[in-house]
Amino acid sequence: MNIKHIFFDLDHTLWDFETNSDLAFTTIFKKHNVKVEVNKFLNYYKGINQNYWKLYRDEKITKEELRVGRLKDTFSKIKYNATSELIDFLSVDYIEYLPTNNYLFEGAFEILDYLHPNYEMHIITNGFNEVQFKKIENSGLTKYFDKIITSEEAGVKKPNPHIFNYALNKANALSNESVMIGDNWEADIMGAKNVGLDVIFCNFNNEPVSESIKSVNLLSEIKKFL
C-alpha cells in the first residue's frame, strides 16, 4: 500500500455515538421532565434513528425531517403522548447536548498518535456541521486532522461519489494513495471503493465480511494494514 492520505469516518468509528447519545437523552429528558424510562426509549430509538439516517443518506428526507421524525416515531412506538412543542424542544436540545459528551472508542488516541506522524489525515462525515465540529474539538481530535469534510459542505452524502471526489480534491490527494476507514458498509466502504480508494472496515459488530476487504474488530488492529 502506497498510502499517503487517510480519511476517517467520525461517528461509530472514532466517536462513540451510542454512548454519547444515551447520555444526551438522559440529560434532556431530565431537563424537560419527560416521564419515560430512558433505556426503554433508546431500545426503540436506535433502530428508528438508523432507518431515518438511511433515508437521509438516500436524499429521501430533509435534515429537519430526520431530527423531528425519529423522535416522533419513537414516542409513538412507546405510546408516550409527546406534544409537537416538546419534540421541537428535544430535537434542538439533543443537538446542543450531544457534543458535550465525548467518549471515543477504545484505542482511538493510540491509533491516531501512531498514524499521525506518517500520514495526512482527514475526516469525511455525513453529520451536521453545527455538531460535528464541536464533537471533534471537544473530544480532542482537532490536532490529528488536516481537512474536515462534511456532507453539508459537499452538498451530498456518503456513499455519493461526489463527496469522496470533493474530499480528495480538498485534501490534494489521489485516490490510489488514499484509504477510507469507517464502520458503515454502504456509506464508507462501498462508497469509497467505488471511487478507487482503498478501504478498512471497522467491523465492530463482527459481521461476516469477504476476505478481500481489510477489516478490523478494534481500532488498534489498523496497525496491521498501515
Automatic annotation (TrEMBL):
Keywords: Hydrolase. GO terms for molecular function: 5'-nucleotidase activity. InterPro entries: HAD-like_sf, HAD-SF_hydro_IA, HAD-SF_hydro_IA_YjjG/PynA, HAD_2, HAD_sf, PGP-like_dom2, Pyrimidine_5'-ntase_YjjG. Pfam families: HAD_2 (PF13419). This is Putative hydrolase of the HAD superfamily.
